[in-house]
Amino acid sequence: MSTGGRQWGGRFAGDMDALTQAYTAGDDREFYEHDIAGSIAHARMLGRQQIIPAGDAGAIVLGLQAVLEDFRAGRVTWQPELEDIHTHVEVLLRQRIGEPAGRLHTARSRNDQVALLNRMVVREACDDAAGALARLIEVICDLGERYAADPMPGYTHVQRAQPVTLGHHLLAYGEMLFRDRGRFLDCRGRTNILPLGSGALAGSPYPLDRDSVAAELGFDRVSRNSLDATADRDFVVEFLAASAMTQVHISRLSEEIILWASSEFAFLRLPDRFATGSSMMPQKKNADVAELARGRAGRTIGELVAMLTALKGLPLAYNRDLQEDKTSIIAARDTVIPTLHIFAAMLPELAFDLPRLRALAGASFSLATDVADYLVRKGMPFREAHGIVGSLVRECETRRCELNALPFEEYRSRSKLFEADILALDVDTALAARDIPGGAAPNRVRQAAAALRGALGGS
């Protein structure tokens, strides 16, 4: 390509090597809306401030609007030799309006232009992620209310521990995802700062009205330091961190769906439209959606690590390493948001085996802690009660029975505090006893679902 096709050709005598051209090109074509919006706001400001002739500013705006329509209509052929979306837009503008197009880049560097584009893209991605999370949290609140009183075994160390309810268990993920949504909203706030006007690194000698550009583009304020505005990508790191954390939370839920759908657990049946089969084994029904979501957590973690690694050794100000940020933004966005959408559609269709969950909620001595609490309420120190109940569990293992199947004499022989009502202890009474804020009692689970829904509406 000739030096005239580049936006920086005057300094160079020869053509760029084809390998260099291919290696340095960025594929950011999908961001034409953002780039053109930024350029229109910049051109209008240049005209208002009489930095360029008003007629040229008007021609630039009309030309950019026409270029935008060409992109939307699919009439633009991507040319790799033009490097990126910014050059494509400028070349297309020059083809439409001629010489006035050369004034668009007045008082603007590629560095603050790129920073503007990135902030607009991350801001939009934060909005999309927050919206998708809100929908999924609403679904989980619905499920929390539906299953508020349905017992299931709770686990620690992947061993049955104490009974909870299915609604309580699912709402735990609602709380995690609610915090994730807050992270995206917080990231949006720190992202929504206008860098345009920072120039390459030192600001601009022109009388720019940066506040008017910020208002037109929906930014909260303008940046305070031109070096920081052009050289840092901490807002990208924040977005990637929020994306990784969200995908990790979905990965944990996915792991449980995969386990619960197995024959060994048999807690749920997968809906046909969210499962796949085997090319060899006719009986298979695989939780591929959950498995892919679990696997893609690694992708989002990798993008976060890649961005942090790129930043850690960069001196101020701009370095070409930062071109890689768009790749990470796109990869994280295109992983997390579709995952949230498909889980919002899939979760309501999971068919839980509620009788099995109830039966297992009281199995494996899961009421042992409640037996100890029974003694504590009668005045026994907890550590003493813990030891007594441990001996009862050992007796159950010898007899191969559950605690409620032990003869009352076995209880009485260990403590005179036991009375016949100990044999009435069951899963429902154990759950009802957890009647504190945040507890697993069904009424508290319903309150928690309502509170989470209310917090979502207020955020």
SSE topology:
Elements: H1 18-24, H2 32-48, H3 54-72, H4 85-97, H5 110-146, E1 151-156, E2 159-165, H6 166-191, E3 193-194, H7 210-217, E4 221-222, H8 226-231, H9 234-260, E5 268-269, H10 288-312, H11 325-346, E6 351-352, H12 354-361, H13 368-377, H14 382-399, H15 408-414, H16 427-432, H17 442-457
Parallel strand pairs: 3-4
Antiparallel strand pairs: 1-2, 5-6
Helix pairs in contact: 2-3, 2-7, 3-4, 5-6, 5-9, 5-11, 5-17, 6-9, 6-17, 9-10, 9-11, 10-11, 13-14
Please provide a written account of the structure.
With 459 residues, this protein is mainly alpha-helical. The chain folds into three domains: 3-106, Orthogonal Bundle (Fumarase C, Chain B, domain 1); 111-358, Fumarase/aspartase (Central domain) (Fumarase C, Chain A, domain 2, Up-down Bundle), CATH 1.20.200; 360-443, Fumarase/aspartase (C-terminal domain) (Ribonucleotide Reductase Protein R1, domain 1, Orthogonal Bundle), CATH 1.10.40. The protein is 59% helix and 5% strand. The protein is built from 17 helices and six strands. The protein has helices at 18-24, 32-48, 54-72, 85-97, 110-146, 166-191, 210-217, 226-231, 234-260, 288-312, 325-346, 354-361, 368-377, 382-399, 408-414, 427-432, 442-457; strands at residues 151-156, 159-165, 193-194, 221-222, 268-269, 351-352. The chain has a two-stranded antiparallel ribbon with strand order 1-2. Helix 3 (54-72) crosses helix 4 (85-97) and helix 10 runs antiparallel to helix 11 (325-346). It is elongated, with a radius of gyration of 31 Å. The mean pLDDT is 95.
